[in-house]
Amino acid sequence: MADITPDSLKDERSFLDRILPRWNVWQWLFVTVCVILCLWVLLPIYLLVLSAFSPRDAVFAWPKAFLPTDISTDTIAFFFGVRGVLSAFLNSVLVAALTMIISIGLGAPAGYALARFRFRGKDSFRLMIVMTRAFPIAILALPLTVTFIKLGLYDTVFGVALVHSALALPFAVLISSSLFMGIPFELEEAAWTMGCTRAQAFWRVVMPIATPGLAAAAIFAFVISWNEVFAATILTLQQPTLTAFLLTTLSESPLYFRFAGGFFLVVPALIFIFAVRKYLFSMWGIANR
Amino acid sequence: MITERTLPYWLLAPSLIFLLLLFAYPFADAFFIAFRAEGQWTLENFRTMIEDINFGLSFWNTLLLVLIVVPLQLAIALTMAMMLTKIRAGRDLVLYVWTIPLGISDLAAGVVWLALLSERGYINTILSSLGILDGPALWLSYETPVALFIAVVLAETWRATAIVMVILVAGVQLIPKEYNEAAEIFGASAWKRFTKVTLPLLKPSLQTALILRTLLAFEVFAVVVALGGRDLPVLMGEAFLWQFDYRDNGVASAYAVLTLVISIAFTVLYLRVLRVKEEAQ
Amino acid sequence: MSGIYVEQVRKVFGNFEALKSVSLDVQPEEFTVLLGPSGCGKTTLLRIIAGLETETSGTLKIGDRQVNGVPPRGRNIAMVFQNYAVFPHLTIFENIAFGLRMKKMLNSEIEPRVKKAAGMMHIEHLLERYSGQLSGGQRQRVAVARALAMEPEVLLMDEPLSNLDALLRLEMRAELKGLLAQSRTTTIYVTHDQVEAMSLADRIAVMHGGHIIQYDRPIEVYQNPANEFCGGFIGNPPMNFLETNRENGHCKVAGARLPAPRAGSERVTLGIRPEDVVVTDQTAPEHLTGQVTVVEPLGPHNLLTLSVDQQLFRVTTAADSPIRSGQEVHLALAPGRLRWFDSENGQALH
Questions:
Q1: What is the CB neighbour count within 10 angstroms for residue B80?
Q2: Mutation for B interface: A139, A206, A259, A273, most B CBs within 10 A
Q3: Which end of chain C is more exposed for a tag (fewer CB within 10 A), N or C?
């Protein structure tokens, strides 16, 4: 064996070889594709945010800067200064909050019934709930304009919330049903044997355990409403939601105004996905069965 | 009386009544409105719809969008789902990033891509710095229908691939690891394992994703309006136009009924085709 | 303490009759085990007694109180569930205090009761934790402590040890036995594990197909099974059965001539427990002959599987026994331990 001298141990690899992890071609390809797909999602959002936080005249700039060199709230301030934006924003929040309350308030009891009882008509009800997915929103919203005008619900926050609740309710039923199914019935039975009525057992044992999941389902309902465009637009005139306001003013509004509007549509989405990331799979898994 | 027997019905009643009032009733009403004019049953609304100059265009545009976007999304989502099974470090982060578009509305997605594709937008900046363009160029106008169409495809793919991916990832998680390991021990290559083990077992999820995405793709609307205004007619856009601008509830409902019929037809088709394959296996 | 009296209780699910007119009288302070294979109706019976299931017909009494139609909360019972049912959103202290709080007891009364119950189950150090931080065995202890803290008239336990691993089960079994003997609470305990039943019970009710087949002291059930099912279900390895015909007051079994039972039909079955058989190389008129097919050394003894009259037969021998498979052996049956059953219906013949 040759003597090992300090000389023979000298690292002869190039600088790049030394700083890069030792992967084979396939691993490099894998990581590259992965990064590209992440950028594909993130880059457009970043650029929208960048546009929204640039000064108004930056939309006319050429070529565009990809780095935030000129941060400004000028565009955002202008956006909220436009007549109707603030009230549309508040309408959106109100409609979404109402949708959340109605869909969970009506849907959770039904979900509980599906999870805990065996009764006639259970399967038909479940099927009906799943079937509602096949309906285009237009087929609900268009006839309802006529009905809502008659009932005085047209162009009201409550009217839009009703339609949005119809969209969110099936999700609420299915999600809460699977939530309740995930809570062992034994826990309730144990509470009964320890002196609880059915209602007491529900409030003291089931609800505390189900609350985080129901909150996630409520956020889900909020976002369904927040994102809905078609029904909100045709059911309102003076009281539009943010989506309705943006859609109807798109053609005559300047680009920077649209970017700021887009920004305020996207932000809740980011928060939503972050808040419910733990429940994402169970919820979408159920909602799409 | 609330008893143990009737309790489930009491719990169901509110949502059932709500859905009857806001689903079943308007659904029936839509047909009523679409097939009636001036107090009698008629196909007048459908004739107006078909004779409209934009009808054919909107029909083919929508169909073409569905046929391009849905397979594209399925392919990307499948790639993502398979990659997620291999990622060791940072899987949760990557998954989170890929699911972000789940919460983004079609209108917002349209605006996002508007920021990229506008005349003096980011994509043009890149293209001109690569020497492909000389300067700002207009993509999203009636003069460049193909570019506009591609923009809609990009935005739709960007926004709605996440739903498909989530369904597929959930499906992949249901497949026991043992199947793949067994196949590996019997000498199947990675590609063979994917096509002979994973894909067949993933079929229920693929079917769900396909049906769901197709149904939603036929409703494409706000993305198109945000990117092209009225320059790219689609079915829902026409329904909106007839309702909101022309104030003709009948023709708008006719569009809605047509969209529903096409959606159902596609769902039935998928169920048929996928079942035949199942028998052939 | 109160007894539990079940009279002719039936339970029908759709068109499946889970319980077919079952009667049971558990005396005050008695420990009764409902033993049987899965699907025999034992859990259904327990749940009916708890009020979690409604009987189709029959009467139920706890003490001298008829409890038909009384909801679980009104029966003054406590129950330990198979999966423990420890509330995940409450601390262990609050879990044990749950039932006491429902009784609107004062904090000053609750605390000593909880501490005492926790002390009995050796979980005082876990009171501030949540069930998610506990092992299966610890959760099991919480479930029992929670039931004991209620100081109920009647304690109901549904397979409480079945989710523990073998070693822990052994430990808990002995501990439960000591504890429940102290507390003197009337207890009904459901299990499919015959060793558990033998170990714990004052009386065992063997259930099969919705019936109680035998309801007696463990040793009686073991030594004098009411039918072939009881003999085969209790004991490990189970009782051996050899079917034969009676001929002039005698039965010929595998080369042996044995006096036949007086009652019963033409076909009768001989039953004998493995430990009541001695393997010998001596022939005698009353010895059976068989061929060893498998020898399993189990440590303390060897388990032999034999073919006797083409029927399966198991015996145990000393661990150092030289017997090898393939060998022909003779079997001496302990006198007085022979049991006869009517082959037609499996009932014991006396």
A1: 23
A2: A139
A3: C
How many Å apart are CA A107 and CA B86, to the nearest integer? 38
Q: How many CB atoms lie within 10 A of CB A172?
A: 30
Q: What is the pLDDT of residues A158-207, one digit of tens each?
A: 999 999 999 999 989 988 998 999 999 999 999 999 999 999 999 999 99
Residues of B in contact with A246 (CB under 8 A): 107, 111
pLDDT of residue A132: 83
Interface residue A189 vs chain C (CB under 8 A) = yes
Segments of chain C assigned to CATH 3.40.50.300 = 4-231
Torsion sign, CA atoms A96, A102, A107, A108: positive
- Best interface-test mutation with A: which of B23, B168, B214 has the largest number of A CBs within 10 A? B23
CATH code linked to domain C4-231: 3.40.50.300
Integer Cα distance of C212 and C32 in angstroms: 13
- What is the Cα–Cα distance from B175 to C217, expressed in whole angstroms? 50
Whether chain B has a CB inside 8 Å of the CB on A29: the answer is no
Q: What is the 8-class DSSP label of residue A68?
A: -
Superfamily of domain A83-287: MetI-like (1.10.3720.10)
Query: Domain locations in chain A?
Result: 15-77, 83-287
**Nearest CB to A193; choose among C79, C82, C83:** C79
Interface test with A, best of C87, C101, C158 (most A CBs within 10 A): C87
What is the pLDDT, as a whole number, of residue A284?
62
Q: Do B111 and A262 touch (CB under 8 A)?
A: yes
Strands C311-318 and C301-308 come out as antiparallel
Handedness of CA A113, A119, A123, A124 (dihedral sign): negative
Closest CA to C88 of A207, B198, A59: A207
- Contact in structure between A145 and A234 (CB atoms under 8 Å): yes
**Confidence check: pLDDT of A7 > 80:** no
Q: Sorting pLDDT into bands at 50, 70 and 90, what band is A16?
A: low
CB nearest A140 (choices: B22, B79, B107): B22
B112 and A170 within 8 Å at the Cβ level: the answer is no
The domain defined by C239-349 carries CATH number 2.40.50.140:
yes
